[in-house]
Amino acid sequence: MNRQEAQREHARLVQLLQGYDKAYYADGAPLVTDSTYDTLRRQLEELEARYPHIQPWQSVGVTPSDAFGKRRHHEAMLSLDNALHEKAMHEFLSRVRRYLGLSPDTPVVLRSEPKLDGLSLNLCYQHRQLLWAATRGNGQVGEDVTANAQHIDGIATTLPADAPEFLEVRGEVYMRHDDFATLNRQQADKGGRIFANPRNAAAGSLRQLDASITAARPLHFMAYQMVVVTDEGAGGAVHETHHEAVAALQRWGFATDETARLCHDWQHIQDAYNTYADARSHIPWDIDGVVYKVDSFAYQQRLGAVGRAPRWAIAWKFPAQQGVSTIEDIQIQVGRRGTLTPVAHLKPIGIGGVMVRRATLHNADEIKRLDICVNDDVIVQRAGDVIPQIIKKQKDGKQRKPFVFPKRCPVCGSPVHRKPDEVAYVCQGGLSCSAQAMGWLRHVVSRTAFDIVGLGNKHIETLMQQNILKEPADVFTLHTHRQKLEDLEGWGSLSVDNLLKAIEARKTMTLDRFIYALGIPQIGEANARLLAVTYRDLPTWLQAMAQAKDTNSDAWHDLLAIDGIGDSVANDTVSFVATYRTLIDNLSAVMQVRPYAQSKADSSSPLQGKRIVFTGTLQHMTRDEAKKRALELGALVSSSVSTKTDYVVVGDNAGSKAKKAQDYGVVVLDEQAWLQIAEANTPPAHPHPPPTNAPSARTD
Q1: Which CATH superfamily is domain 510-597 in?
Q2: CA pair distance 199, 217, nearest whole angstrom
Q3: What is the DSSP string of 574-607?
C-alpha cells in the first residue's frame, strides 16, 4: 500500500482499538477476543514500523471514575506486549539485547511467572503501613479502593522492620473458580447480577462504594512487583533483581506465585511455557499465558518503556479455547460513528466455563471470507472474558440463508456508504441517526469521559425518546426538566436528586478530559492529553483547530509537530471540530473547562513546557531514552523544527533538522549539554553549536 493507504489503515485500526480499550477497561464488556485484539495491535505496530511518517499510537488503561477518590502512582502502571508464538519471543530477546548493546549470544536472565487473569492493583506503604490502594486507572492515576483492599486475602497491611519505609507493591486481584461458581449461585438466588467470568466478578467486587460488599466477596491478591520509593518520590533500589524483590514480598506477608522460575536460556523459557500450559486446566484460577521479565533491575532501568508497555517484559499468551455452534441469525449493530457491524447470534454453547451466545463478524468482507450463512455450523473461539470470534466454517447448514448487507441503515433508513479503500459500511445519517446520537451521548457521559453516575444507557434512550436529551449540552440542563424526570417510569425524587448532583459535580472539567469526552476519532486519552499540554486552554485549542483547516497554515504545521500526532489524527481532529463546532460551543457554554496544568514535578523542571526536538544518533542513550527523559522533565517532544521550538538536541549524523534550527535561530544543544539537563535537571550554561563535521547522511 502507498503512504496514504497506510495512513488510512492506521487510522482505522486506531479507531477500532480505542473502542475495544474502552469496552474492556471502562465498561467491563469487551467486544473482541484477546487474540483478535492482539492481532490488530500487531498490524498497527507493523504499519508504524514500515511507514516512518505514521505517528505511533499509545494507549493504556482508562480515566479513573470520580465515584472514587484518586491516587497518583509513583511510577506508571503499564500494559504488557504480547507474544503468540516462539518467533515473537525470539524477537523480544533480540530487541532487549540490541537496546542494551549486548552481543546476540550474551545471556539475559528472565523470570517466568503465570499471567494471572485478574485486575491490577497498586498498594502504597508509608512507614511500613498500608497508606492507600488504587486500581490501574489510566496508568498514571487510579481509583482509591483502600477501604476495600484491606479485606482482600493476600494483602499485608503492616510490614516488618526489614521492609523499606516507603514503597509500592503491584499485584493482581482475582477470584478462584470454585468461589466464582458459589458467588453466581448466591447472586441468582437473590436476583442479583450474574457475572460472566471470574475476572469480571473480581473487578465488580473490588470497585464497590460499600466496602462491606467487597469484604463479603471471596477475593485474593497475588503480588508480582515491588516499586521502592524514597521520601522525595524518586526510585530507589534495595534489591538487585526482580526475583529477589518478589521473594522479599513473600517474606513480608504478601501472597506470591511460588511456581515462578528463572530462565537462563531458551530451553528454560520454552520449558516454563509448556509447564504452565499443561497445568492450566488444573490451576484453580484463570491464567492466560506466561509473563517473562528481565530479572536485572539495572537492565530494567535502562530498557525503560515504549508507549504503553515496558521493554523488559512480555506475555507469551496461550492459544484460545474453541467450540462448535450454529449461526441462528445475523443482525446489524450501528456504532456511534455510524459503522455497521454484523453480529452472529449463536446456538448457546459453553466454552471455557462461559455460555457463548453471540460473536462479532466485524464487517462484510469477513462474512465473505468465511463464506458464512445463517444455519451454518462454525468454530467459535474464546480467549479471555470477551465476546468470541468465529474462526471458520465447519460445515454448511441444511437450509443456508445468505446474509445480504443492507443498503440503508437499519436504524434510521439513511443510505449506507462504503469507501472503495475501506472495509466498513457507514450510515450517512450522522447525528440524525438515533443510534449514532445515542452512541455519542453514551460516550460523553461514560466513566472515562464525563462520568455521569446514574445516567446509564437505558436512561439515555428514554430521555432521547422523550425529546429531553438531543445533544451533550442538554445533559447540563436536565435540572430544568425535573418534573418530567420524576414522572418517568422507574425514576423517583431520590434518583433524580442523585443524578442532578452527579451532573453538577461534572460542570467543571480539565481540558484534556473535555477533549477526550468529545469522542473525536483517534483521540483517546493519550492524544487528548497531548493536545491539552500543547494548547493549554479551550479557546486557544479551538482557535488553532479553526486555523488548521488551511493545511498551509502555521496552525496546521504546529499540530503536526506534536510528537504523536500524524496527518490522519490531525485531519480527524480538525474535521470534527469544524463539523461539530456549534455543539462544542453549546457544551462549553454550560460548563467550565479548566486550562491544563502540569504537575508540581514538571513545574520545577527547566524543560517544563519547552518544545524539544532530537536529531541524529546520541552516544550515551538512544533517542527513545532521550525522549522518555524529556517527557519526564515536562518537555513537549516535537517531531519537526519550527520557530516555536526551544531546543534542538543534535547527535552524530544529524540531518536537515540541525540546519533548520540554525536558520530559525533555535538554541542547539550537543549531547554534552543535553546530558547536563537530563542528568542534573539544570538548564545549560550556554547553548552548544551543532557539530561542524556532521555527515550529509540524514537520520532524522
Answers
A1: 5' to 3' exonuclease, C-terminal subdomain (1.10.150.20)
A2: 13
A3: HHHHHHTHHHHHHHHHTSEEEPP---HHHHTSTT
| C-alpha to C-alpha distance for 472 and 460, rounded to whole angstroms | 11
Alpha helices by DSSP H, listed for 426-490, are 434-445, 457-465, 482-487
Q: Which three cell numbers stand for residue 221?
A: 491478591
322-448 placed in CATH 2.40.50.100: no
Torsion angle (degrees, nearest 10) of CA 374, 378, 381, 385: 30
Q: Which residue has the cell 446474509?
A: 403
> What are the DSSP calls for 265-303, one per residue?
SHHHHHHHHHHHHHHGGGSSS-EEEEEEEE-BHHHHHHH
Q: What is the pLDDT of residues 669-683, one digit of tens each?
A: 888 888 888 775 554
By the 10 Å C-beta count (0-12 exposed, 13-18 middle, 19+ buried), 469 is classed as buried
- Contacts of 122 by beta carbon, 8 Å cutoff, 6+ apart: 71, 73, 77, 133, 134, 135, 136, 142, 168, 169, 170
What local confidence, expressed as pLDDT, does residue 699 receive?
A: 32
**Residue 638 φ/ψ region, left for φ over 0, alpha for ψ in the -120 to 50 degree band, beta for the rest:** beta
Residue 96 · residue 238 · CB < 8 Å: no
Q: Which three cell numbers stand for residue 643?
A: 520557530
- 657 catalytic? Reply is no
Ranges of each domain in the chain: 3-50, 70-317, 322-448, 510-597, 601-680
* H-state helical runs in 217-284: 242-251, 266-279
Write the pLDDT tens digit of every residue in 49-59.
777 667 667 66
Cα dist from 326 to 386, 402, 684, whole Å? 19, 14, 69
Look at the chain and count its residues. 700
Q: How many CA atoms lie within 13 A of 253 on its CB side?
A: 14
Q: Is 659 helix (H, G, I), strand (E, B) or coil?
A: helix
Q: Which residues of the chain have pLDDT under 70?
A: 22-36, 38, 52-53, 55-56, 58-67, 190-193, 196, 229-237, 307, 352-354, 383-387, 490, 597-604, 624, 680-700
Predicted pLDDT of residue 39: 72
Radius of gyration for the alpha carbons in the chain, expressed in angstroms and rounded:
26
- What was the pLDDT predicted at 67? 58
Which residue of the set 22, 115, 627, 660 is catalytic?
115
pLDDT value at residue 384:
52
CATH 3.40.50.10190 fits 601-680, yes or no: yes
**Identical fold, 70-317 and 510-597:** no
Cell of 632: 519526564
Among 79, 106, 103, residue whose Cα is nearest residue 296: 106
CATH superfamily ID and name for 70-317: DNA ligase/mRNA capping enzyme (3.30.470.30)
Q: In CATH, what number does 3-50 get? A: 1.10.287
